[in-house]
Structure formats: C-alpha cells, structure tokens
Amino acid sequence: MVCARMVKHLRLPLLLLLLALAAECNSMSKPGKPDKLGCRSPDKETFFCWWTPGSDGGLPTVHRLYYKTEGRETVRQCPDYHTAHSCFFSKTYTSIWVEYTVIVEASNALGNTSSDPLTFDLMDIVKPYAPENVTLVVSIGDNPHLTIQWHTPSNIDTKSGWVTLKNQLRIKLEKSKIWKNYTSDTQTHFTIYNIELGVVYMVEVRCAIDNSAWSEWTNTTFVKVPNFPRTDNSFWILVFSLSLIPLLVAMIILILKRKTVKKYILPPVPAPKIRGVDVQLLKSGRSEDVINAMLLNQRFPVVMPWKDQNEDYLIVSDKETSYLPLEKNKIFILPVAITLDSEVQSKETSEVDRFLKDSESSSEESSEKTKSSQLLTKCPSTNVLNDEKANQLKGVTEKIIQPFGISGYVDIPRHEHTQEADYSRVNEVNSDNILIMKKENVPHTLDTQGQEGGVLDDYSRVKEVNSDNTVFLEKHSDSVNASIRAKGYIDWVNQKAKSPHVTGHSEMGVCPQLVGCGYVDTFPPPAVI
Amino acid sequence: MQLETILPVCSPAHKQSFVLCVVAMCRAVPINDLIYRASQQSDKLHALSTMLTQELGSEAFPIDRVLACHTSSLQTPTDKEQALQVSESDLLSLARSLLQAWSDPLEVLSSSTNVLPYSAQSTLSKTIQKMQEHSKDLKDGLDILSSKMGPAAQTITSLPFIQTNEIGQDKITKLLSCFRRDSHKIDSFLKVLRCRAANMQPQVC
C-alpha cells in the first residue's frame, strides 16, 4: 500500500526530472520557419513548389504545404510530396489564370511554424527546362556555315498549341569572351553563315514559353571548324608563272628595241620647210645669200630697174579709120611687139604701113596724117635703136604725147590672157609732145596676180587735157574693167593741132565705141608668138 | 451593285474594318495568315503588359492580392484540357470579348498616370499607349476573322467597366494585373486557334 502511494507521489517529479534531463540533452523547440518557397511550372500544365526547411527544433518535424486557390475558400494540402521538401501539382490540380496562395508549415511536437505565403498565378511561374540534344554541324564547301539543332524539352507538349516556345541561342569563339545572341521563334534549328575557319565555337541554347521567364542555358557544346584544304594552289602558281614569262620577254624586247618602237609608235613629223630656203643659211644671218638662194630657186623674174631701159614706143594715129567712127583726131596706138627677129619687125612695120595706108585713105587733115606718118616713120628707127634694150622685152610700144615734163604713168591694163609683158609706163614726155612710154617686158612666169597688181598700181586714167596742154591723169586705183582692157586707147592730144573746140578728149584718136576713153592698152602682138 | 451585296460578310458599320474586310475578301487572304497575324499581335500585347508589371516592381503589386477583375464574370477555360475542348468560334468570341472589355479601362489608365510616382509615369504612359495601339489592331483583325468563321464567333459578351472618377494607385496596379492576365488569355486562345487551324503545318504550333 505504502509503495503504491510512494510511486504515485514520485510519478510527477520523475516525469519532470526526465523531461528536464531530456531538455538538457536536446535543445528542442518549435521547428524553424521554412524558407525560400518557390514554385515553377515547366510546361504550363503542372507545377511544383519547393522550400528550404528551417531547423527542426530537435524534434521530428513535419512540413506540410497548404494552398488555396482564388474563388475557393478551402485550404488544401499538397497532393503529392514526391520528393523531400517539395510538392508537385499535377494537371488535375493545376489551373491557370487563378491565384494560388501557397504556404508551408513545419510542425513538430512543440509547435508549428509557417512560412511566408506565396501568391502567384500559373503564368507567373512558367519556366521551361533547357532544350535538349544540341547538335552542331559544320558544312564546308563554297559557303561554309554552321547549323545548330536542338530538341524541345521532352516534357513539353507542342502539338496542341497550348504551349508555344521561342528559342534563343548564343555563340562565341572559344578564346573570346563575348557571346552573340540569336533568336529563333518556334524553329528548333538555326544556321550561322559567317564563320571563321580553323577555330572552335561554343554554343548554348535556351527557350521560353510565351513571354515567360527563360530557361537555363544548355550545357556548352563545342565544335571545331576545320581548315579547308587549298585546292591545288601549286597548279595555279605554275600557270601564273608560265604566263609571266612571255610577258617578261616582251618587255625585254621592247626595252632593247625601244628606238624602233618609238619610231613606230611616234613617227617623226616633218618639220615645216620652205622650198629653196635653207634653214642653216637663214640662221647664218647673211641676208644677201639668203635672198639669192631664194631667188635662184624660185626663179623670180629679175626686175630690172626701169630707169635703165630705153623705151621704144610706137604711136599709131588714124583719124579716118572706121575703127573710130565717132571721134576725130583720135590716134590709134597700136602696140607693136618688137622682137629680135627683123623679119617680124618688118612685118610689124608692114602692118603699120598698111594701117597707115588705111589711115591715109582718109581725107581729112592730112597734115596730121603726115605728121603721124612722120611719127610713124620715126618709130621704127626708134624701135631699132632700142633694139638692144628691147632684148629683154618682148614687145615695145611707144606712145607719144605732148611734153609734160613729168614722168607719169598711163595705165596699161594688161590683157588677162597675155603672157606677154603688157606694161607700158610713161617714161618721159619730151618737148615734142611725145609721151614716151616705156614698155616693160617683165617675164612673168609668176602668177599674173602680182603683175596685175603691179599694173593696177600703175594705172592712170587721163582725166582731161586742158588748154595748157596739160594732161591730167586720174589716179585710178580700182581695177580696170576687163572690157576696157581689151581694147584701150589713149587719147592723144596734139597740141599743135589744137582747135578751140578741142577740149578734153578732142583731137584725139577716136576711142572705140566699146571702150571708154582714157586707157592705154597693149594689144598682144598677134603674130609674134 | 453595291459592295455590301457582293460581300455580305463585311459589315459597313465600322469604316476601317469594313475596308479591311473588303480587302481581305477580295484578296482572299487565307484564314491561317490572319490568325497568325492576330496571334503575333496578342503576343506583343502580352509582352508589353508583362514588361510593365515587372518594371513597376513588386512593391506596386502587393503579394496578398486578390484579383477581382471586371472581366472575372466571363467564363473561360482554366487549364489546358478545358482550353483544348473549346471550339474555335468560342475561342475567338472569348478573345474578342476580353479585348472589347479592355478598351475603356485602358483609356482610363492612360489618363491616370499622374497618380503613380514620377519615375514610373513616363514608362506607364508610353507603354499604355502602345498597348492601346496593339489592342486596336488586334481588335480590327479579329473582327475580320470572326466574320469568316460564322455567327458564333461574332458574339461578344459585354463586360462593362464602370469607373468615372479618377482611380487611385492601388486600383491602377490591380487593373494592370488584371490586364496582364486577360492579355495572356487572349494570347493563349489565339495560339490554340492558330495551331488548330494549321493542322497540316506542325511547325506553326
């Protein structure tokens, strides 16, 4: 009896003692707070949560996860604790577009400790796994490129359209530190074209569902790009060098024969040269030699100074002839070509005689005729006299005009077609009213232009003859009318036979109708040449 | 002959969509391309809203939030199986209804940015403007699409948003969260629709 009473009294203190002992051996407490609660959905269909337990307080601790969904007030516990400290929600228990509130409670004998609640929507925690089976294929040839292929995470259903993946890859050279990112939509392959040769590339891939968080990067995949074998460089080098040899040979030939080549390419251009002019002679500076050389070569006609010449003139006067029907007292002047040939001369004179005879047939003013015949008779002698001088001349005409005292010129328009010297110049007027005209015979092989110019310069037109027996000559600078040239007569004023009515052109040879009065012309000797 | 008689499908009520409709009809744009384009727009819209919530930070979005959106009354699938069982027309109708429901709230949001702290204001206003643009584009596209898909696609559930006064900061954050969810719904529905329409092209899904 007493023992039972003693045990009863001792029970409580014993328990206390045991507890105290137990407490001293293990510091027991409530469990620590579960921490770092997280949830993740890798496929938008299921999700799982995990936590980190706190201390267990020395006692066996149980962790429980409770969740609550939006719209349902009941608190449910984790349907599946398939691994430690995590909870898996299958499709059945997964809803989207609903708010989940999850809390983990750790409980042990001494108490419970709850974690902080976590509120989320499924779309907030979607984060797929990394892609799988990343393969790299290097393709060589004309267009080297790198093809990267991978597979979607095996847990994701991509056939229904519920999940739409987008991918991202990054690549870098092994020795580089900078990654280059590329985005690929739903395709599970990608090609990179501008790759270097003989290097190692590193590639990583990740993916995301809709606009959720990105998955982790895959493990790095390495690939080495081989150096492409150079295709037969030696062949091309040989071809190149062989083609160079003829080029070199051509260059050498060109250099050696450069003068010939130069002549061929740049033919010498003939310098300007005047025939008969010697450049060296010109340079020597002696003008006489130069001029002589030029003249000899050119065969200029020698221009004799006209002063040295004896001029022979022949004046024919015929008032009665029908040639000059209009005017009386006109005097023909018939140029006669005097040549070396005396026969010709006689012919000439015979022509003159004939002419005179014709003139003699006229009845009027025989005194004048006689005079003229006198004159005419004079002429041949004078002609003869001047024969030597006339050697150089082909034809001489003599014209007698009243004394004037001044040498002047009567224009002698030269016939264009004559090659004879047609010049006549008034040399002097002597006291017998004889106008001595010099006939110039200038051998002209030159062009007639110069002569004509000279002739032109020498023209004088008899303007008038006044009572003082003065012949006024017009200075005539114009070119003479050809018709005038064809036949021209000079008006001859016979002073002694002057009649009061004679003014100007009277008492002269009658000018032909065709021709205005006032020009001396030289007929080309018809029979001479 | 008037254009309406030739193309009775297109309703001339809205000029722009009518023109688009006529153009689409005349050019015979295939449905697949229209859906693909629409899904691209919805993806962009969702991306914008996600970016916005991330930028505003978690402090603007209290953890213990209970979202009671003005669109919560609309019954939508809540998981994959349910979503795959919805018909195409219904999917389109749901998308269009949700889109229509956010036209006014976005307007309210764009005019209420001054409530937020200054640093967030420019981001918010710019992003909201972009969201409005994409929303408008998507709406036009879906209108044309629905006209090709029969009368069931044409029905739009009205989800009125009643808020006349200026809203406070907490309301703004709530609206933004709601919009993020709804934009994701639209995006998911259209992507399911896209995959289903391109049943011969698995790479589309």
From TrEMBL, chain A:
Presence of keyword Zinc: no
Pfam families, A to Z: EpoR_lig-bind (PF09067)
Highest taxon of the lineage: Eukaryota
Record protein name field: Fibronectin type-III domain-containing protein
Membrane topology label: Single-pass type I membrane protein
Subcellular location as annotated: Membrane
UniProt KW keywords: Glycoprotein, Membrane, Receptor, Signal, Transmembrane, Transmembrane helix
Ranges for region Disordered: 349-375
Annotated Gene3D superfamilies: Immunoglobulins
This protein's encoding gene: prlrb
Domain Fibronectin type-III: 130-228
Gene Ontology molecular function: cytokine receptor activity
Automatic annotation (TrEMBL), chain B:
Major subcellular site: secreted
UniProt subcellular location: Secreted
InterPro entries: 4_helix_cytokine-like_core, Somatotropin/Prolactin, Somatotropin_CS
UniProt keyword annotations, A-Z: Disulfide bond, Hormone, Secreted, Signal
GO function terms (MF aspect): hormone activity
Cellular component GO terms, alphabetical: extracellular space
Origin superkingdom: Eukaryota
Pfam families named in the record: Hormone_1
Parts of the chain that traverse the membrane: none
GO terms of biological process kind: positive regulation of cell population proliferation; positive regulation of receptor signaling pathway via JAK-STAT; response to nutrient levels
SUPFAM superfamilies: 4-helical cytokines
Family: Belongs to the somatotropin/prolactin family.
PANTHER family linked: PROLACTIN, SOMATOTROPIN,PROLACTIN
Protein name (record): Prolactin
Lineage of source species: Eukaryota, Metazoa, Chordata, Craniata, Vertebrata
Gene of this entry: IL12A
